């Protein structure tokens, strides 16, 4: 007899979540399981917003950003009562296992359900690339490409006016989007939470660039360091520097996923269903060295995020090629 698998998306949305839902639904149905979509994350689970999904429910979904299952924050899930309601609904619908697509908060929810005997597997979905147990999360590549497109456009105007631009990108407490878009756009400076910054050096670099005939200076600032306007104020206080500020904001969360995110989502969704068939629970899928892997969620959460070493390596590369 096949399994009865629930699938939900939780926390912040990310492009490619839909492609992951599609992979879970199709792989499960292919293997003879029944699949149930749960709308609005853990809130919908507790409230019983649950419907059976057929293979055609996920047609034409891979190319769409956002999540067809919607997402929500539901702090009550940290309390026993919230989880009791959720488990009651799972029992009512005869759902024996759950695929949770989301960030580390969503993983904590999945781990606590696993501790209460519900079979769960997590899939890392967030643009911030800050989830443990994987080198890349679904949505990161798309967000970087969206940001790059915008930064390239800002560069055109920055060159025309010999201007300094501060561009604030997302990433929560991680500098991954900043590092990737900084290198990708040839930015003069990248400022990330994982590395100290020094205003003397920043201003010296801008001035050195001008002496070398640079037409503009682009500073990519990770939101985890501070807000773009705050940084521009500091530059002004430091040396009367007038920097223009662009906050890219939520455009980075939307749009059609890139090939990379669609494929990653398909691999993760496929692996999640395989893991459920193997009887795994309280685990999350990830990618490491181009291999799809799984890790115990609690172990992953204790490992303090994914390896930031590679981001710092990239950061160092940029400091040597951006003059
Ligand atoms: P993300 O999954 O993107 O990190 P959040 O941190 O907002 O986003 O978490 C998403 C949801 O996961 C929360 O709204 C809550 O329902 C659930 N959650 C978060 N932390 C916990 C926790 N410690 N225990 C149980 N559920 C949690």
Automatic annotation (TrEMBL):
Its cofactor is Mg(2+). The keyword Metal-binding applies. Allosterically activated by ADP and other diphosphonucleosides, and allosterically inhibited by phosphoenolpyruvate. One of its GO terms (molecular function) is fructose-6-phosphate binding. Its main location: cytoplasm. HAMAP family: Phosphofructokinase_I_B1. This is ATP-dependent 6-phosphofructokinase. The lineage of its organism: Bacteria, Bacillati, Bacillota, Bacilli, Lactobacillales. The gene is pfkA.
